[in-house]
């Protein structure tokens, strides 16, 4: 669904390495949308003082120090959701019913926050449009 190209930005041949990777990817006859949506990641920015990517849409990270990893995670999530046509939603479910079990089978459950006082839960899920339509038909409330 997505290509993430991570480069050691401190390597003296980093530009040549990028060109080589892009050439190999193009020769694999991958769908053009994969190449167009590729996430470019510049790693080891902690080794270059005040590093700013000159390439459009490149993300600067330091895996060693954790710099930029949250932005990278958000970008990957956004692109994967776009590529797969899925959404992240929070739904309220009655814990006495079958909704939570259905969501575990038909979606990707990320978080469950139980409200014991009223027997419900807030459930954060990644779900496709058709699955969410089925969910609304099965559980209209």
TrEMBL record:
Recorded GO molecular functions are: GTP binding; ribosome binding
- Source organism per UniProt: Anhinga anhinga (Anhinga)
Q: Which PANTHER family match?
A: GTP-BINDING PROTEIN 6-RELATED, GTP-BINDING PROTEIN HFLX
Record-linked SUPFAM superfamilies: P-loop containing nucleoside triphosphate hydrolases
Hflx-type G domain spans which residues?
A: 1-84
Q: Provide the Gene Ontology terms for cellular component.
A: cytoplasm
Q: Which named protein is this?
A: GTPB6 protein
Name a Pfam family for this protein: HflX_C
What gene is this protein translated from?
Answer: Gtpbp6
Q: Which domain of life is it from?
A: Eukaryota
